[in-house]
Amino acid sequence: MTVLEVLQSTTAYFKKRGLESPRLNAEHLVAHSLGKKRIELYLEFERPLSESELVPLRELVRRRGQGEPLQHLLGTIEFGNHVFLSDKRALIPRPETEQLVEYICDFAWPETPRFLDVGTGSGVIILSLASRFPKAELHAIDLSEDALALARENADRLGIAARVQFYRGHLLEKIEGAFDLIVANLPYVAAGEAPRLAPEVQHDPPGALYGGSAGDELIRELIETAPTHLRPGAWLALEVGHDQAECLTRFLREKNYHDIAAKRDYAGSPRFLFAQYG
Q1: What is the rounded CA–CA span in Å between residue 112 and residue 124?
Q2: Is residue 78, in this structure, part of any structural domain at all?
Q3: Span 157-169, pLDDT tens digits
Q4: CA-CA distance, 80 to 206, in Å (whole number)?
Q5: Which residues share a beta bridge with 167?
Q6: Which residues have CB under 8 Å from 42's CB, separation 6+?
Q7: Which residues are CB-neighbours of 277 under 8 A, at least 6 positions away?
Q8: Residue 128 belongs to some domain of the structure
């Protein structure tokens, strides 16, 4: 089979399996398996593939067809202007979280801001902010040692490991001092929603998905504990579930936050909350 024939048959298989963007998935896997860039495939459409090239590709296609995330198969994900390692140790970064970073970058910050990322996972938020704010003091915490190991590997790949202080702990329990920004993309899925999640999502670590019986318990706990770690004029920035912004906005008001703003994601859902305290 030629490269083009493999792409066509793989696309048809993924379409039959109900995968979104079947052609794009096929191109990514074929390029990855052959050690090529996607654009290079278009120059090799007529090249026949040997059996030794097809065997590992078939295995990748099988696994993708069974719902294993594309990012886990590739081992990387593009996020902002960087390529990060991505695997089963942490939540796969979503496009919405890229948007959260962009919103944060639009704010006015001190020349040497102090940033904290709570529930850092693979580190994409704090490491993306590192590249945008070269004088920032950077801190990140996660309860999962596996996730922290992945975040450190990503920091090493970007050459900024020395700039980020990583902690292992629950929310703010190991954190000292106050910050100009506390940002968090915490688990916000209700435990009972597990059977209704897409197969790809179910490959994420449960600890990175489920926030309790209601889904927003960890977010509420952070809202309650964050004020003692916020400098005057500082911001708390949260990514929340698509239907949680209204109730969490009320909770922020009850806890005496002000200048509360809900911002929408690419799909139009109120996905991000920003608030000040004091």
Answers
A1: 20
A2: no
A3: 999 999 999 999 9
A4: 25
A5: 141
A6: none
A7: 226, 227, 230, 234, 236, 255, 256, 257, 258
A8: yes
